[in-house]
Amino acid sequence: METKRNLTGREKAGYGLGAVAKDMVYMLSASYVLYYFQDIMGVNAIAMGIILLGARIFDAFNDPIMGVIVAKTKTRFGKFRPWLLIGTLTNAVVLYLMFACPPSLDGAGLTAYAAVTYILWGVTYTMMDIPFWSMIPAFTKGGKEREGLTTLARSCSGVGSALIQIFAIAAVQALGKAVGGSNANEIERLGFQWLSLIVAIIFVVFIVITVLSIKEKSTVDMEAASLKDMFGSLIHNDQAMAIVVTIVLVDIAMYITSNLVIYFFKYDLGGTAWFADYTWFNTIAGGSQILAMMILYPVMRNALKLANTKIFYCGLTMSVIGYGILLACASLGCKTLFVFIIPGVFIMAASGMNNILITIFLANTVDYGEIKNGRRDESVIFSMQTFVVKLSSGVAAFVASITLGALKLSSAAVKDEDKVVDFSKNVDLAQRSGLRMVMTVIPILVLIVAFVWFKAKYKLNDEKVLELAEQVTKLHENEKQADA
Question: What is the largest CA-CA distance in the chain?
């Protein structure tokens, strides 16, 4: 049996690049698919909400099955890399098609196009996302090495997300004008089409580098779980379920904000150059997310010697404070960009740390499940991460869609012939107030619930994690001796 060796710099770099690319793709879809189809193409907001949530219900069946398929895969290239490559290639194609909706479509045809492409995007993304994250416990030693790679991967994911958050709308405007968009709406439509093509190409190139860099070294001969065994192991792994619920709650809060903040800048703060303010906001807030993952979390963890659970509580508290400041400033009628950057930094820095921590917590439940249930189901447990993240974005998008439908916010209804428009002139105080409340108060309430749930249910503190790692090591040594 092959002995695990230390990770090489090439493996870390290759895995990190893959994380950058996959989260560029995910953030482009999670943050802008609702905006693209509802605000630009004119799909009914309620219909979009049903589509986005319905796709997540479909994932409830698709994602776990994909986890089992990955676990049962045996090829000379490993069980993870083939699916990683297949999923990436197909998802890149679907991503482009999703943001290249024919402008001639309307009514039922337009809604059907949105539904089909988005569901296909979810299916193909699952094909690559589950094997990508399942590789962490599969080719790391556990403990510090696993935590280190998880931190690196999540930091790189944050970079990918931040790149989209920072540059997407500015790139959309520049690309749309470069290819001859004649008015504000057409500029955005064409801009998203070309941006999605660029992101899709980067996605394929970076994941190919990942596939060529990583060598699978462990659990290749892992016994595959049946669908019944999979659900049974999840139900009986109370710590995995504790983290799954936590991920859902934290991500719902974050995705509600990410879906609506663009509308806040476009329709509340307004101005003909609203997208420039939105870009600056995301640049600084997104930068704080990266710095939090690369600097703030390591300082709190290594220099201050804080437990991961305490860092998580700090992150939740920072988010709530940020949302409170955002609501207060908007309600007081502030229009200065700098004022809104402050809460943005609080929220995004907290999100960066929490992204790392949640993945570490979930990875720890793999060892816990092996000791408690007698089987090590990396793909099973990490398939739940893929599902719950998409479920969270679906629920959040549904909430955002209901909000947009009730508030009647859509630039597709504005028949402009100019390349620049101040959309804030088309909304009243009630619309502004409703938007502000949904994007701040609801996330605060959800995060409070997440705090209470996590504190009551999650028991794997640092000491317990070390104890589990030792038990797993002894278990594997005993198995080797028995096989010999």
Answer: 77
State residue 139's pLDDT score: 66
Which residue is associated with the tokens 């699952």? 126
Contact 238, 36 (CB under 8 A): no
- Euclidean distance between CA atoms 208 and 198, whole angstroms: 16
pLDDT at 27 over 70: yes
Token pair of 184, please?
């504000």
Token pair of 367 as six digits:
């060892």
| Burial grade of 298 (CB within 10 A; 0-12, 13-18, 19 or more) | middle
Q: Which residue has the higher pLDDT, 151 or 117?
A: 117
Averaged pLDDT for residues 181-210? 94
Torsion of CA 231, 232, 236, 241, to 10 degrees: 0
Tokens of 133: 């994250």
What was the pLDDT predicted at 130?
83
Q: How confident is the model at residue 443 (pLDDT cuts 50, 70, 90)?
A: very high
Which of 136, 91, 97, 131 lies closest to 113 in space, CA to CA? 97
pLDDT per position as a tens digit, 241-263: 899 899 999 999 998 998 899 99
CB 47 within 8 A of CB 185: no
Residues near 157 by beta carbon (within 8 Å), at least 6 away in sequence: 19, 20, 22, 23, 355
pLDDT at position 410: 73
For the CA atoms of 267, 273, 275, 278, what is the dihedral angle to 10 degrees? Answer: -80
The helix/strand/coil state of 376 is: coil
Could you give the percent of the chain with pLDDT greater than 70? 88
Tokens of 400: 């955002």
pTM: predicted TM-score of the whole model, two decimal places = 0.80
Could you tell me how many residues make up the chain? 484
**Placement of tokens 């997540």 in the chain:** 56
How far is the C-alpha of 220 from the C-alpha of 78, rounded, in Å?
Answer: 7
Q: How far apart are CA 412 and CA 43, in angstroms?
A: 9
Distances (CA, A) of 240 to 105, 180, 220, 246, 337: 44, 51, 22, 10, 41
